[in-house]
Amino acid sequence: MPAPEILDYLTPYAPRTQENYFGYLARWESWCASRSCDILTAQRADIEAWVSHLRNRGLSNNAVRSALTPVTGFYRWASEQELVTRDPARFVRRPPAPRSSNRDWLSAPDLAKLLRHVTVHSGIGISAAIHLFALSGTRPGETMALDISDIGRYGDLTTLRLRHRKAGASDKISLSAPTARAVRRAADGRSRGPLLVTETNGYRLTKTILRARFAEAVASAGVPRITPYGLRVGFITLALDAGIPERDVMISAGHSNSAQTAHYDRLRGNLDRNATHALTEWILAAGRGAIAGI
User: Residue 252 has what pLDDT?
Assistant: First the structure.
């Protein structure tokens, strides 16, 4: 049984966050037990030894940082609740965060090829999911949680209510025409229940089935191997490369700040996009205008 303090700490979080954080905290509690200490008596040295253990197992910096987030949050909460005399995680050294994401993504031609393929050859649930990942930038978790009642209208646009965005937020997005068609097909005339269901039993699509069906669709489309989250990264990257304002991309992706959006821009190192080119042309044009006015 997990320590009751862990359950108390998790209470305010959304169910999906609770599930993720609980897994990390359970592993941390097990690590403490292996060192004959309690989570409320653990010291900074214990946490840093755990970090070293995770890195020695081959976990990436990002994975280690993800594991540390609920642990450091727990001790900050425990300190506020006066369950510990001092926060042992306060000065724990975190692995450095990469400047940009290293996830794979698809080029525009490959993405168009994948979308054409799934529209014709894949199940309606997987086709809708892939359209949402690629053209709306939705996260896998919030996509699988969609219900038919979340579909709406705004003028001529089809909308979706995302009730399970990060940090328990709710959001509403509009859909492009191909995505709207894929979503309506997935609803398949039903008036209620989950939007994305398995073909065999009509139950809500699970992570395991999504991964399997997604991999099958990507392989049969003949495009480079990609993950659902990779399509979200592609959405951000391609939207910025298409000249869509960063603010609009940030809001569409459900990011809380532009730094998150820039992190997932896989073309941020593209030399053709350096601001020097547009700025130079603007200055030269201004100069020509000034001379013409003399």
Answer: 81
What span, in angstroms and rounded, lies between the C-alpha atoms of 185 and 145? 17
Residues 144, 150, 126, CA angle at the centre, nearest 5°?
A: 35
Residue with more model confidence, 248 or 179: 179
**Residue 70 contacts residue 21 (beta carbons within 8 Å):** yes
Domains of the chain, earliest start first: 4-80 (1.10.150), 108-263 (1.10.443.10)
81 or 241: whose pLDDT is higher? Answer: 81
Query: DSSP of 134-168, one letter per residue?
Result: HHT---HHHHHT-BGGGEEEETTEEEEEETT-GGG
Task: Give the Cβ contact number of residue 193 at 10 Å.
Answer: 13
Q: Quick check: 16 and 164 in contact, CB under 8 A?
A: yes
Q: Which residue has the higher pLDDT, 14 or 223?
A: 223
State the pTM of this model.
0.65
How far apart CA 258 and CA 167 sit, in angstroms, is 17
Question: Nearest to residue 133, comparing CAs of 194, 167, 176, 92?
Answer: 176
Cα–Cα distance measured from residue 248 to residue 245, given in angstroms and rounded to the nearest whole number: 5
